[in-house]
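Predict the 3D structure for this chain.
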Amino acid sequence: MRLGQTVPNFQADTTKGPISFHEWQGNSWVVLFSHPADFTPVCTTELGRIAVHQPEFAKRNTKCLAHSVDALNSHVDWVNDIKSYCLDIPGDFPRALFIISPDHKVRLSMFYPMSTGRNVDEILRTIDSLQLTDCLKVVATPANWTPGTKVMILPTVTDEEAQKLFPKGFDKVSMPSGVNYVRTTENY
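Done. Predicted structure below.
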């Protein structure tokens, strides 16, 4: 799947019953995980961490769904192992990772080697950024951005438009080139 592509309305048998993807997704965002096989050690820790952070995903109107090539009964056994290994899992949970917007478009894809676990805080930060920039279509989030910190005003927005959009102000960053293209605000 590529960025901007529509995710097909696939059917799947899950540990929670059969789903039709678009119907299951509803108006939510989705984090779709793939893992190479059940009973893999790194994925066991990842899925456990995702489960622990489930309330954070719920705050962002985001559902999690993991998939692999293994049989459903194998998934059920593995879920029990994950719950046993990650004792702080509050309830239910879900090698490529996709974030899918409510319009079924792929908005982010991340590919990890099997030896490297995913950073759940980065997944949540990315969802926050995508939701913010969907809502305020005139900003982008800079490197290492976290909710509540400065955002970048897009170069397509004039200073006059920026003054109307951000009446509490914004900062212009003077660059050695003399080109004024970096403007930031915390007032969004």
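The longest helix spans residues 120-135.
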